[in-house]
Amino acid sequence: MARPRSVIGVLLVLQAAAYAQTPPVQAPTAISFDAAIAHASKSAQVTNTRSAVTLLRDAEASLPHLDTNPVVTLSAGPRVAPAAERGFEGSIGILQSLSVTGASRLRRAALGAEATWLGAEADAELLRRRLAIAERWLALHQAEAQLTLTHADVANEDSFAALVSRLVMAGERTQADVAAAAARVAEAELRHLLAEGNVAEARALLAAEIGTSPTAPLTAIGDVPEVMLPSPQEQRAMIAAAAALPAVAAKKLAARNLALQAVEERASRGARINVGVDASRDALGAYVVRGTIGVPLPILDQGHRETASRRAAALRSEGDAADEEVRSRNMLGMVVHEAEHTEEVFTTVRVRLVPAAERAVALREKQLQAGEGILLDVVDARRTLFDAKRALLTAQHERAWARIRLAALFVAVRGEK
Questions:
Q1: Within 349-374, where are the H helices?
Q2: Which among 410, 411, 396 is positioned nearest to 223, based on CA atoms?
């Protein structure tokens, strides 16, 4: 039974409304390498840590020279005996506790050490984000270049499938050849789909690193950056100075911070002198001013519990810093090796593989134009050239990443921002 026209009309209206409510696909936002790297210093973790350092520095500058508050005492009351001396009496005094072990100075030093440690943490996070963004931008640049290459790959396989179909009609090929050609077309289309997926993933990962909305896709513009590498002598010096890397320095400063907190805690419970002065009036109207001095004996409460915990944490942090230094030294050695290795691979692909594949395509096409070759040979040569170009893109981006990483770590070891 036919569906009423009114129902069909309602369905069409609903479909049109749903289509109208679908948000349009946003065009990708172009971002260069330098613009992407600039986002590293804008991350919430880096900026908040920098703010925390400023807060601690301000607190360090405003710390008083005494580590405890003065105590004001007030006492008053009547004298009740003997009867002849009855009257009102009272006294007022002030008492200040002074640290013999320099607790106030050590508190200021501990606060400064904490600020220095957080500053090193901010530097380490900034370097990590810069490297992460650089790697993600290069990955997006490579994925988009690979996607462009797959268009020509599909076109090449389509031309081959069309050739096979014509040969079948001429009786020179079989249906098995047609099926094989169709499979090659499907493989090329699958590579294109996978390349599209790689682009989408690379865009999402870069957006996550720089902190932009995932609904606004990014696209990499500009060439792959070319950076200058330090000399071999500078590279060896960089490996030897692995302790200067922000990640290693931060862990060492964390251990120093905890050690100073332990010293600060012990000093706050150490030897002290209480000095003060008080004035009193007795019932007969006599006034007395006295100075007082007291020495608390730090026999029982010396902060053993708190000090031991901080010392233990400092020891653990020192071990962590030592391990991080060893890992960083080995990492720097590997980075130097990767820069050398990727340079060799890139040179081989660019100087030997791609030119040889290009010459093969040119010769096959020349033979075809002269009537001495067949299109199948041209298609095969183009396949080889596509593979060579894909290898060149991979080698180019791996070389760029290795060089950028080495240059960034070299700058970090030298203490430059």
A1: 354-369
A2: 396
CB 38 within 8 A of CB 211: no
Q: Any idea which residue has 């865009």 for tokens? A: 203
DSSP string of 115-144, one letter each residue: HHHHHHHHHHHHHHHHHHHHHHHHHHHHHH
Q: For residue 26, tell me if it sits in a domain.
A: no
pLDDT digits (tens, 9 = 90+) for 13-32: 444 444 344 445 567 789 99
Q: Using one digit for the tens of pLDDT, what is the confidence trace for 132-178?
A: 999 999 999 999 999 999 988 898 888 888 878 887 888 777 788 78
For residue 274, list its beta bridge partners.
Answer: 97, 294
Let me know: does 91 contact 72? Beta carbons within 8 Å: no
16 located within any domain? no
Whether residue 260 contacts residue 106, with contact meaning beta carbons closer than 8 Å, is answered with yes
Chain centroid offset of residue 140 CA? 18
CATH of the domain at 175: 1.20.1600.10
Residue 250 and residue 120 in contact, taking contact as beta carbons nearer than 8 Å:
yes
Taking the C-alpha atoms of residue 128 and residue 126, their distance in angstroms, rounded to an integer, is 5
Closest to 331 (Cα-Cα) out of 409, 408, 230, 397: 409
- Is position 9 within any domain? no
What is the value of pTM for the model shown?
0.80
Q: At residue 94, what are phi and psi to the nearest 5 degrees? A: -135, 140
How far is it, in rounded angstroms, from Cα 38 to Cα 51? Answer: 19
- Print the domain residue range for 157: 33-413
E strands, 100-224, in order: 218-220
Closest CA to 274 of 146, 147, 57, 98: 98
